[in-house]
Prior knowledge:
mainly alpha
Amino acid sequence: MPMASRSKPALPAAAAKTAAPAKPWADMSKGERMSHNANLALNFTRQLLELPFDPENLKLLGHQKDAALTIISQQIRIEAERLREPRARGPSVREFYEHYSDATAPEEGEP
């Protein structure tokens, strides 16, 4: 049984597509660095998932599967949090003020 060829590159030469940051790394804030790295990671993951299915390249297939399952898992968590959000935060600010303005309003006949 022949072994799978390892001479194929895992990803096409994508380094040329990688955009350089707008300012030098040393001048970036932590948030700007995180944003830049997140963009690189998203681009890499997109390229990984867009590669054609190759049943002979089990290592690549494993990475594609792991990336896909991680993305699906995170999306489920985001959607679950979105559904849980309104109840966790309580009533809206407007409802809060309406409730308390009714309680502090003078009753009829009071000055």
